[in-house]
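Sample pair:
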Amino acid sequence: MTAPADSTAPPSLERAAQRRALAQLFWASVAWIGLGLIAGLFYREFTKARGYEDGFSGQLALVHTHLLALGALIMLIVLALEKAFRLSASRLFPLFFWIYNLGVLLTGAMLTWHGILEVLKAEVSKAIPGLAGAGHILVGAGFVLLLITLWKGIGREH
C-alpha cells in the first residue's frame, strides 16, 4: 500500500505510493461526479413521472448535492492535500479513504431509498434513518482520520 510516515523507503517507492493515492482520489472523484449527476437526473425524471412537474421537496432532492459535495468535492480537496502533504505516507490514509467513502455511499443510498418512498407516499421504515445515521457517523469518523492524517503530513513538511 503506502509507506508508513516513519519509514525510510526509497524516494522512488514514496513517489509510486503517492501516484497511486493521487490516482485513487482522482477516480473516486470521477465516480462521485458520475453518481451525483445520475442522482440528479433520476430525481428529475422520477418525480416528473410521478406527476411532480416542478420536483418534490424531500430526501430525494438532496442526493445529487450530497454526492457531489461530500463525494466529489471532498475527494478533489484531499487530492490537492495529498499532492502538498503526502497524506498517503500515513498508515491512516487508507482507513480514512475507505471509511469516508463507505459513509458517503451509505448516506447517499439511504437518502435515495427514503426519498423514493416519500415520492411514492409509502411508509418509511425506521431502519432507514438508523442506517443514514450510521453513514453520517462513518463520514464523521472519516473526517477525524483525515484531520489526523493532515496534521501528521503538516508535521512531516517542517
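Confidence is low (pLDDT under 50) at residues 1-6.
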